User: Fold this.
Amino acid sequence: MSFNDEDNNEEKKSDIGSTDDANGDDLCSGCMGRRNALKWILGATATAVIGGSATVLATVKSPAPKKKRQKITAGDHLVYAIGPKSQQDIKMADLPVGQGMLAFPKGKEEHSNLIMLIHEKKSMFYKPTHLNWLPSGFVTYSAICTHMGCTVLWHPKSQRPAPYPHIYCPCHQSMFDIFHAAKVVSGPAPRPLPQLPIITNSGNEIVANGDFDGIPGPLPGGA
Ligand code: FES
Assistant:
């Protein structure tokens, strides 16, 4: 299935609840006007990619909206955001090279903290990516689109105009270059996805080493 396979996506109904938090905890605040149903499903359904094909695994259930995002701090363990291992710690061996998944900082599982964790060869990355935030080629970006706040997807295959694995937003087709600090390759997203500093610990778990290097999601008042 490709992420553009709208027929397939339309069949996958989400049970996620909406929020109306002004700080970006809604899934896609501007997407409900046009082609409402599809975009709601796409924005609300978290997708992970395993083994080169996209599979909708489950939905990310946001807790009750909060006034302010809980900042991610050094030492916060990354945990599975979805699936049968939801809220369990993520270990390096869980994500082979070429794969991506959604994660949360443990105990701070709110939508605006949703993280895209990707494993690629470290030599593939270039500045302005923080090259010292890539333990063994693991990289983490905000999973909230900077355009209107949809959940972005990991796309392991080349797709014009991004001839390499990239992050893709299904709402308005923004693409982000994972090897260049998630810069916008195409689409209406106004800013890159913020990068999250991470390290690995003695238990081979992936742990945050601070907060995002920018504001996740759309800026207040637009950008
Ligand atoms: S929300 Fe519009 S491109 Fe992502």
About this structure: Residues 67-208 form a domain with the Rieske Iron-sulfur Protein fold (CATH 2.102.10.10).
